[in-house]
Design goal:
- The chain is α+β, with helices and mostly antiparallel strands.
- The protein has 17 helices and nine strands.
- A six-stranded antiparallel sheet has the order 4-5-6-7-8-9, covered by helices on one side. The protein has a three-stranded antiparallel sheet with strand order 1-2-3.
- A hairpin with a 5-residue loop joins strand 4 and strand 5.
- Helix 4 packs across helix 12, helix 5 runs antiparallel to helix 9 and helix 8 crosses helix 9.
- The longest helix has 79 residues.
Amino acid sequence: MDIPKSDMLLERLREYVQEQGGELAPGWRVEVKTRNSGTSAGTSDAYYFSPAGQRFRSRQEIVRHLETTAQQSKKVTREEAASNAKEAAQTLEKQLPLTLHNGVTVARLGSIDVRPSYHSRTQLWPVGYQASWQDAAVGTFHCDILEGGEEGPLFAVSLVPPQADQAAQSLVMARDMDTAWKEVADIQQAGLDAALAAQSKARKPKQSKPASTATDATANALQPQLTSSNGNEAGSAALPDQVSASGPQTGQAGADPGAGAGAQQAGDAPEAAKEGNGHQASEENQAANKQVQGAAQATASSMGKDQKSESTLRAAQPAAEQSDTATMPNGSHAEADIAEQLEEVDEATAAKRQLLIKAAPLAGVWGLERFGLADVTVLKLLEALPGLQFTGLTCNSKASLELCWAGVEEHCKEYQYVEQRQGWEAEQRRLQKELDKHSKQATKASKGVEKKGAKLLSIEASAKVKAAQAGAKQEAKAAAKRKRLEEKQAEKADLKRQAAALF
């Protein structure tokens, strides 16, 4: 008689659990279901059920469940857990500084502070603990746990630039690790926003009013002398001496002689005199306008010569002497614009922003991981630190041990050792699950920061290229002008030598 598939699978499960060092209790069962539709029709699935009715899909999942259940059912006393922690730390044989798989380096473990605010049920925060990790662009981030009074420890984050002559920059201090790193990420975000705003402002073309020409300027200066609210007669009377002196001659040459003579001989004919005077004033205005235009052209010519002379002298200067007054394209240097944009905040905040804008994206980072406290190796070392358990009394029996612990205040009594909770394997899985979740969140949160950082780098690179091109073009122009000036000077010197040879 054929053995049912479910019984065969149950026997294989029993053997597998025994190979893993466990034992399968009575009451387990297996159900096999065959698929009737779809592309996988005809295949079967196995479902494992515990005595309590909990369903599992694989043998590996069942083994993990049995290990967790065994750890939970096994009652480990605090004294036993403390002793095991010491043994585990000695077995590790780890030397500080200790570099973890995520790049974090633990430099100091610190010391246990027995006050209740310096630990929780599942975490220890020893005073003096320090970890660090490097960012290739900006330097080394340091994470320190500091004494913070009765309220609990302070979690400090600082940055040490790679340059030896630059001091460490304190970034933030907060009451928990996640808050500290969130504030650091916020500083980076604000710095990127300010830098991009400054670059956007620098790229906008500056609108300048069109400069007036020399002719317009001269005409505007002389126009009040040519016009008046009383008409042509007042305008003619207000002309300068030199304009008035030449005006009548031009007007008389172009006027009707007969009309002018008749108006002068007939004193009782005012209309004719008025007509003659108006015609004469018109001729005078025309002459005055010609003189104004001539003066304007002369002024413009003089100004052009002065500008040309100034330009020639400036071009003859070396390009290095002009670098102080030269500016980048679009009107301003990028660093100056960023500094101007950051004037609204204090100097310390501005310095932090400028340091962090080139760092790798910090949005969504997990504070526990950055401090190196999401690694089971570090946790094992912390549980072995002196002061976590009371060792001042010697007890000879189990009964007297209980009396000893009842008679003294336990150190960090709220904290439960990992072995008291669920065991190191379960703790490792829990931390890995948390790490995977935070990694996804950080990846999602950092996309915007990466885009802004890439945009800023692109703008800065473009600005540097434009500045280099503008500098090269300016230098070429200056060199060409210097060459022309030298040629003219050589030509003049040659002419002088020829003239001296002739005479």
